[in-house]
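Hey L., structure's done. Input below.
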Amino acid sequence: MMKKYLFPLALLLAACSSERQEQCLFYDKPASAFEEALPIGNGRIGAMVYGEPVHQHFSLNDITLWSGEPDKGAGHPDLIATGLNGSGEQALQAVREALQREDYATADTLQRRLQGHYSETYLPLGTLRMDLDSCAVSGYSRRLNLDDATVTVEFLRDSAVFRETVFASAPDSVIVIRLQSEKPLNLSLALESQLPNAIHSEDAYIKMDGYAPYHAYPVYFNYKELSPSRELYDASRGIHFRTGLRVDAPGANVISEDGVLKIEGLSEATIYLVNSTSFNGPFKDPVKEGLPYASLADANLENAAKLGYRKLESRHQADYKALFGRFSLDLGATPDSVRCLPTDVQLLRYTKLEEANPDLEELYVQYGRYLLISSSRTHGVPANLQGLWNEKMAPPWSCNYTVNINLEENYWPALSAALPEMHAPLREFLHALAINGGPAASRMYGISEGWMAGHNSDIWAMATPVGLGDGDPSWANWNMGGAWLSANLWENYLFTRDLEALKADYPVLKGAAEFCLSWLTSFNGELISTPGTSPENIYVTPSGYIGETAYGTTADHAIIRECLMDAIAAARELSVDEEFVLRAEDALSRIHPYEIGADGRLQEWYHDWKDFDIRHRHQSHLIGVYPGHQIADGPLADAAHKTLETRGFETTGWSCGWRVNLYARLGDGESAYRMYRTLLRYVSPDAKRGGGTYPNLLDAHPPFQIDGNFGGTAGVLEMLMGSMPDGSLEPLRALPAAWPSGSVRGLRTRRGTTVDMVWQDGKVVSLKER
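Output:
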């Protein structure tokens, strides 16, 4: 029987009246949309908690549940069907010849012969339905406590207190739901999935076995000439899974009936939910060589039940707090009259009334760290476009790895925010991507040295450019993904000084650089990238042609420079490959330089062309400013700043996050802060345009993409500390007037140290480096 409980709203007021409120998101009503629900995750399995009083549901995910099978290279059926499985080297030469003639229209057309198949799709696992007795509801409270990664829902059911506690344990690979009711009640539990499945229940158990499609097409592709349906299923192919549920309800009557558990007279219960898939790495058939998912799920469920709620909770909190507790941030005080309001109300007032709310600004940073811990703890499987949380069978952009900014942005805060363990899945993924990227470079371009990756990837480490001959070259043909992502390998060494990790990562970094060296072409006494694009942007030539394919694009050159610089630095640190170093240094000295256009902006194209959309959300030609380290001051920095001014402050969520970092790197704290406030602009769940933040603080592209959360977190840290590869530090590099005094503890730097810093009236008063 439940012990004495405070009225739920009294708990809320008690927290607000404390000296320092817990770091939590809190609401006075249940979620009615995904963009209001609260995410939990242990880095592999997770859920969105809606907290409805009667008809509850938890949408479930497993980060290893994707469509597809190991990549077949040139043998992919879609490439064979479209005739795109050969002659890549000849097609590349034809594009280059067209560009030499300045025939951009022909180059755009020919680029489509250099496209491959699409990525696979990240899929929803299913839904846990929990139906309770109807009741009169009052005193409702729902919160996500970031300090212990726990969601709590409390309210009065017919004047009796009801509490629900939910967390996802990494040590024991289980989602735990604790129910406590002052007055006994009845409820039912059921699992369901949009994927083919079979459900069995007995005693206090439910087991759901299912499988994913062995191939799926993106929602934006007209698949009907290639396939009778968007998803293709075969029970003998694809990733399989088992979801297991067990309920422990002392004193209650549990009845199993047609896959549903009915619990009568419940006062207290613990629900354990597990899932395992057959995914066994990107190169193994998930059926013939897959993991024993059923026995793994069963073992996890049995282990959880043996441990029981208290031990699971203790182990979960010890594990999580060891990660989350490394870092703290204080940007100032928010008045009690504001910070005691529900989070969605605070966000709306922050937007509409332009209220000062440093607590909310701090919370957003810590929420980014929470989301990364919750979505990036599975070996070789990084956080995807929505981190871990997706409810749709045909999600936006396949919920894949979009590599022309979004996957990179996901990991910008990992190292500076003291979470190197969360960075590891990306590094491990790059090792697999390099394996597929070598054959892709050879097949697509006739380049036998090094490896490349295109615009999209997936859990199978797909490396080929996408498009199937139908994609716009501005995004489909981009091939700098491997070079850009590889910057993470050198960054990891700078922040951690882990020499053994660098030794393991160096061949991957060197391979990306070798592809760049082979890709560069001599032109007018310089080296250029050709063909190239500036991801998703479009130019207008003096003759009026609106094009996508060009040569010598600034973004390509910025990425190549950074990749070569990193590979050279790594080789020297390891005292290896002197011949390669000399070759890379020679290439660096001959790459076409940055140029400033007639209007004072950094040129995006080789020629001083106009942009089709001068306020485009991408600003890829500024990669050399951030996340690169090529432009920090002088005329080029001024030109980059002019570019940002022209791009403006109205953009999508992830682009807001990038621009916060760009302004911060350029030392413009006021513009960085204005951009940060734009990122935290309230966006309603049904909004179709206008980037910002949803009521549950997830990033609004719109729709939801998690990269803006991570970009915003990184941006605040960049404002507080300039940290460069040469080991130099610049505290408060871009501090805005809105944060005159504050502190940060646990901030990591590129010289392998950790900084604790206090500032007052805009000046550092204490800085300890350890």
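The mean pLDDT is 96. The CA atoms of residues 375 and 680 lie 21 Å apart.

-- N.
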